[in-house]
Amino acid sequence: MSLLTGLITMSLAAVTAGAVQAAQPPPGRPNILVILTDDQGRGDYSAFGTPDIRTPNIDRIFHEGITFNNFYANSSVCSPSRAALLTGCYPDRVGVPGVIREETPNDSWGYFSKKAVLLPQVLRKAGYDSALIGKWHLGIGSPNTPTERGFDLFKGFLGDMMDDYYNHRRHGLNLMRHNLQTIDPQGHATDIFADWACEYLNDRAAHHASKPFFLYLAFNAPHDPIQPPPDFLQRVKQREPNMKENRARLVALIEHLDSGIGRVLNTLDSTGLSKDTIVIFTSDNGGILANGANNGPWRSEKGHMYEGGLRVPAAARWPGLIKPGTSTDRNSLTMDIFATACEAAGTSPPKGIDAESFLPELLGRKLVRKRPQDYFVRREGGAAYGGKTIEALRMGDWKILQDNPHLPLELYNLAEDPRESNDQSKQHPDIFKQMLDALMRQIQIGGQTPWQK
After folding, report:
1. Residue of 63, 89, 137, 342 with catalytic role
2. Does some domain include residue 315?
């Protein structure tokens, strides 16, 4: 048996057995704050070394905690990554292989499984209050709204994107909700979501300090439309007079996002909640190059199975427990946040999930991965996709992918070719076949869950 075949066998056994055991957490039950941005490229924050952007508040999380050098979104588009974060499963296993657009059902490519167990439901058993502020994007109707799926509080936007950051409509529909009630707040969506998060934190500190919380703060910035407040755009243009217009607008939108994140971090500090709160920061997928995104040195962008669509910024901060200024090369996925939160809370995740906790890595203990492969999927419509899927699977240094459903699969060795410029499928037919077998098996597993209502 080859090493690769052995890894495939181990992987299938892990999927079948599926149980993930919770290790002993550190003393106490920490608050958990997950900040998810929307379409933020791997290099679009200044701590990455990008010289034309200023993100001092996002940088705080990286400098005051641990940087993930190899963090991946579960998909290159929104809904699947969000489903993975909240369930700890590959997204097609919970009915979300593609973008959910229930307001335009002929172009909706997922339906969130009623059988899926969400993170707020698991944490509730451990005594946590859970809130989602910001973007949901896993359904706009019952039973797939946040409070019906386990959150105690929802203030945010149900849909996929806003057509305008100030009027918050999508296809003319108002999808802003406070729990199940339709609301119509005023202002830029980023400011609204940051303000609501600060209000929640102040309320927890003042009235519920003894009960831990899970706050999922999901901004829709810097997703289209690229609509920064005018003062932020003017500031960027004055600082970077030679910057292209599309890049200037995106940088300004991210810097405005950074200011909102700063208000949230400052509220943690002012309320005394910081020392008892794990902050995890990441993005749902890579950025859009036509908008001027910086995905680092990696190939391609949002929507694609190359590294530029899947690699995302990620960091975690926990004062006194995560050593500042550290980094990890561990390959982690969005869904691993689920298992990490469960372990930190001292509760066991559901059996059969795909996620692995990276909590020991945060606390300075090297962690051997049990999951031998990482799988990525996207289903989409239109002439380019026709309702079909594109996928990728990584095992060790090897990655097989199909970035277009009408074109052949490709094989890359990421250690030798991190920019995916030299397809090795013809040079290594044995590895290609073994990787393809593993990919097809993963597709079969995902196919066990319906993705339409």
Report:
1. 137
2. yes
